[in-house]
Amino acid sequence: MWDRLEVTYEGTNQVKEAKISMLVHEYEMFTLNENEDIKSMFSRFTNIINALQGLDKTYSNSEMVRKILRCLPMSWMPKVTAIEEAKNLNVLPLEDLLGSLMTHELSMQNKDDDEEKEEKKKKIVARMMKSWHLSAGSSKNSLLAKRNLVESQIRESTKREREANLKKSYASSATNRGITKAISLASRKRTYTRRRRRP
Q1: What's the gap between Cα 77 and its chain centre?
Q2: What is the DSSP string of 44-107?
C-alpha cells in the first residue's frame, strides 16, 4: 500500500532522478534575469531549492550564498567583491545576503533616477535657451537672467527630489534592519529555549 502511494505521489526512482537532474540543471544555469529585481530572483531561487529538498537533494548554505553571488551581472561586481571581502561566506545567512543586495539595488535605482532626471533637466534648459535666443530683441543680459532663473528652479526641485529619495532609502534600510533583527531575535530565543530545557 505505502509503496503504491509513494510511486503515485513521488514517482519511481527513475522519475525522481529525472526531476532532480532537471532541477539541478536549473540551479546550475540560474542567473538574474534582465529587469528582474532581487526579491523576484530570490523567490525563484528559493522555489528551486525547496523542490530539490523535497527530492532529498540539498545544498549547504555557503554553496547557495556563493551561487547567488555568481548569478549577478557585471554591474553588481563591486558589491559582490565587497561582500566576499567583508563577510565570511561560510556562515553568512541567506537572509542577510538578501537584505544587503536589496539595499544595494535600491541605491542603484536612486542613482539611475538621479542621472536620468539630470539629463532631462539639461535638455529642458537647452531647449528653453534656444527658444529664448531665437526670440527677437532678447539681450544677452536678459538671456543670462532667464538661464539663471531656470537653473535655480531646477536645483531647488533636484534638492527636493533627493530629500524624498533619501527618506525612501532610509525607510527601506530600516525595514531590512528590522527583518534581520527579527531573524536574529528568533534564533536567540530558540537558543535560550533549548538551554532552559536541558536538565
Answers
A1: 13
A2: HHHHHHHHHHHTT----HHHHHHHHHHTS-GGGHHHHHHHHHHS-TTT--HHHHHHHHHHHHHH
pTM reported for the whole predicted model: 0.55
Q: Which residues contact 123 (CB under 8 A, 6 or more apart)?
A: none
Cβ atoms of residues 51 and 28 within 8 Å: no
Residue 175 phi, psi (nearest 5): -65, -45
Nearest to 165 by CA among 99, 101, 78, 106: 106
Using the predicted structure, report yes or no on whether residue 3 has a pLDDT greater than 90. Answer: no
pLDDT tens string 126-178:
666 666 555 545 555 666 666 677 677 777 776 777 777 666 666 655 555 55
CA proximity to 152, closest of 191, 113, 125:
125
> What pLDDT score does 139 carry?
59
CA–CA distance, 98 with 91 (Å, rounded to integer): 14
